[in-house]
Amino acid sequence: MKVQSMSNLRRSRRLASVIEAIGNTPAVRLDRIGRSVRGVEIYLKLEFANPGGSVKDRPALSMVRQALATGALSEDKILIDATSGNTGVAYSLIGAALGFRVELVMPANVTRARKDITKAFGTTLTYSSPMEGSDGAIVLARELVKQNPERYFYCDQYSNPENPLAHYRGTGQEILDAFGDRITHFVAGLGTSGTAMGTTRRLHEHSRKVHCVAVEPAEALHGLEGLKHMASSIQPPIYDATVPDEILPVATEAGWDMTERLGAEEGLYVGHSTGANVHGALELAKRLQREKQEGCIVAIACDRGDRYFAPMKWERRYTW
Ligand SMILES: Cc1ncc(COP(=O)(O)O)c(C=O)c1O
């Protein structure tokens, strides 16, 4: 057991605003989970280290910055979008920090924790049908904007080019800074597809040899929150199926099992989409081993597991 001394931890920085804490996330080696596969290293880039707790802080900030720069978003407008949670937390945090209002459209059955977190930032929530999932939220958000175009700035994470660009400039570049030519494989799940599109484009620009894999749920009805089964969903306009080198279906059970392993074996308590990504990474590692090749795989940890606790209640006052 090796423990680094505290003097090696350089996280202490002075920041002018919480939004400056977005990005520059660490990547940690999965020593135990990867141990069975000799010659292949697996790393997880910890996007839950962003202040909003997920990979979505990056695109939310890029989309907001662009909208403020063009004047599409101003203090008299409300930022609205459809989100199953993490982008909503990110918009809410950034809205509170920069001083604009946020309204989120989400399926009514999103976890209590996600609703409470966004409300804690002062955000307004509008619920779409729990039966229609994230697609129902998209349709309702579009309707609200159509009825009241002057009131809203529709951020539209599914179509906004700043979503993948945030990962092109941020996630992808940071992976290259940390791994350089050592990286052989990259794994990210498909939700809006921003992470996979932007990061893959940056890595491919560096070298076409980096094999980039997009993980998607194997089933249309699945339990990998944050991920989309593309064939049965509204395809996000930013999604281009020709960008990844491979699309790897992962079953819900496999993603959930790996999520439990990450907690118990690596001390990483993560959401189920991260479990799916690491399951995909381990499948790739086994494939490399069968082919007697070495490799360095980087996968994305999208968020932390405690975001899925239900019911979870924020108590203003404790009573004994
Ligand atoms: C938990 C979780 N995992 C994965 C994703 C997928 O990321 P992207 O939208 O960049 O495809 C999301 C997106 O919302 C998410 O919330």
Structural features, described:
The protein contains eight helices and ten strands. It has 320 residues and is of the alpha/beta class. A six-stranded mixed β-sheet has the order 1-2-10-7-8-9. Helix 3 links the parallel strand 4 and strand 5. Helix 1 (57-70) crosses helix 5 (162-179), helix 2 packs parallel to helix 3 and helix 5 (162-179) crosses helix 6 (194-206). The relative contact order is 0.16.
Summarize the structure.
With 320 residues, the protein is an alpha/beta fold. It is built from 8 helices and 10 strands.
Features:
single chain, 320 residues, alpha/beta, six-stranded mixed β-sheet, four-stranded parallel β-sheet, 17% strand, globular
Mean pLDDT metric: 92
Number of strands: 10
Ligands: pyridoxal-5'-phosphate
Query: Looking across the biggest beta sheet, what order are the strands in?
Result: 1-2-10-7-8-9
- For the CA atoms, what is the radius of gyration? 19 Å
Helix content: 25-40%
Given the structure, what is the number of helices? 8
Alpha-beta content class:
alpha/beta
Low-confidence segments: none
Distance between the termini: 42 Å
**What percentage of amino acids are in beta strands?**
15-25%
* Major sheet characteristics: 6 strands, mixed
Helix-strand string: EEHEHEHEHEHEHEEHHE
Topology:
Layout: E1 27-29, E2 40-46, H1 57-70, E3 78-82, H2 86-98, E4 101-107, H3 112-120, E5 124-128, H4 133-147, E6 152-154, H5 162-179, E7 185-189, H6 194-206, E8 211-217, E9 246-250, H7 252-266, H8 272-290, E10 295-301
Parallel strand pairs: 2-10, 3-4, 3-6, 4-5, 7-8, 7-10, 8-9
Antiparallel strand pairs: 1-2
Helix pairs in contact: 1-2, 1-5, 2-3, 5-6, 7-8
The structure holds pyridoxal-5'-phosphate.
